[in-house]
Structure formats: structure tokens, C-alpha cells
Amino acid sequence: MVKYCVLMYQIGRGSFLISLDAKMLSLSLLSNHLKGSVESRMSITVTGKRQQVLIGEGGLQSLLNSIKDKDPDRVSVGLANSLDTIAELELLQAPGLSFLLPGQYLKYPRLAGRGTVEFTIEKGDGSTFSQAAGAEPKDQATIQVVIDGYSAPLTAGNFAKLVLDGAYDGVKLNTVNQAILSANEEKSNGYSVPLELMPSGQFEPLYKTKLSIQDGELPVLPLSVYGAVAMAHSDISEEDSSPFQFFFYLYDKRNAGLGGLSFDEGQFSVFGYTTVGRDVLPQIKTGDIIRSAKLVEGQDRLILPNEN
């Protein structure tokens, strides 16, 4: 099956939505976009990273070769490697947020950068997760998610605090249409933060406002990626996110609209993506349990409100 990937990446005054499909691919667009992204973010202090992205092993040149060879598996790996390095460049050049949050939202936790959350998932019925070829099946599996405070600081911040508080340990999961939803725990200490979406081409998020995909409004963090992580809506208003309930989105091109975008694109606060354990997601069933959730990276970027 041909793999499909939607990449949203913002540079300078604009951004591009790149749909990678082995059957329909504009090599010149992808090449110009990635090279432009890299060049625009380089500085003398990060020359080594620059060379790594452009000509290093697994860098841009390898990615372009994979595209030329029409190898979708290598394209996916190459994209991930290039974007990981670009993310490191961003951290070197932008250690904090590049915009000021509205004053009324400073009462919420916020993540000024990126973080990594590691989930340990356990089967609820005593069965096992299948592993890579030759490996023994196990009753637990690991999933890692990179959460993005650059584009969704309040949503990622609230989630990071909940993880630190152990709020998701022992929580059951439910599978619904194209999503894996955490059980809603009313006893949680999370914040009902406003819907938070950063449109492409903008430099700060919009709050309490959905995007109109039909009018060409596209989010920097798209939902239309397999393993995207987003908050559910609040029970009270769709202008706010749930203080606790989140979901893994299982994007399926066959159920997408025109342009390959999810029908729910621009409607939820997306704040991260599954980077490890994507093969585990389709094996999760209703009743499986989050045995533990840990913030393994990014705690130093989490800013908690002064509650005194």
C-alpha cells in the first residue's frame, strides 16, 4: 500500500502543504520547499546542522533520491530525519516562544518549545501486542509523542502538566471511528484551555476559533496525519478543549475529503504527533490501558502559572 503523508511546514511569510504520494509527486516543489526551509533557518552558529540536513546521511539529498526512486517507505523515513534536524535548529535559534500570549491566558500552563511524552500501553484483556518480525509478543507496548508548544503552547502545556501529575496513569482507552480516545476523567486537575489553532502563514495561534478549510485556512499542525494527537472538545463548548480527554487520530486517506484532508481538519487543537509506536496504534482496542505516561523531555520548557 502506498504510504501517504501530509507535511505542513511554515517558513518566512508563507507555508506550503505538501502531499506525498508515489503516484502524484512534484519533485521540484518539494525540493524547493525543503531547501528554502533549510536555508531560511540557518545561521553561522548552526553550520554543522545545516550540512547534516543538506548532504548528511539521511538528510535532504537522501530524501530527494528516495523521491526520485519513488520509494514511499524511504520517503517517510527521510522526511522524519530531515524534520527532526530542522526541529533541532529551531530549538537552537528559538529557545522560547516567538510571540506574546494574550494576558487572559497567562493563568494556564504553557510549553515554550517542544517536549516528548512516552506512553506505556497495556492490553486490557490479557492479550498481547505483536512486535517486529522475529520478536516475542508482549502485553505492553511503548508509544512516544512529540508535543509542540511552539504552535500550541497552552494545549501542550496543559497536557504536559497532566502527564507530570500522573493523571493519565491507569486511564482506559476507547476506539471510535478513526480515533483512539482516552476515557474522560472528571476528577482530573486539567485546565479547560481555549481551542488553539495556528493558521499557516501566521505567527501566533488563534483562540476559540475554528479554521475554514473550504476558504483555504490550513493549520500549521494538521490533523490529517496518522498518529496526530489532539484534545477533544469541552462538554460545555466547542470553543474550548476538554481539560483532560485527548485522542490519537488514525488518518485514513480513503475517508478524507478533497485534497486528502480530514473532514475534521481545523476543528480540534492538535498539539503533537506519534513518532515511535505508530505500528502499535492499530492494535489498540477498547479497554486497553495507559499503564503510565511520562514527560521524558521538555520539563524545563514547561511554565506553570503562579497559583499563589
Automatic annotation (TrEMBL):
Residues covered by the PPIase cyclophilin-type domain: 128-285
One Pfam family recorded for the sequence: Pro_isomerase
Taxonomic superkingdom: Eukaryota
GO terms of molecular function: peptidyl-prolyl cis-trans isomerase activity
InterPro entries recorded: Cyclophilin-like_dom_sf, Cyclophilin-type_PPIase_dom, CYP37-like
Signal peptide: none
Name of the protein: PPIase cyclophilin-type domain-containing protein
Organism encoding this protein: Papaver nudicaule (Iceland poppy)
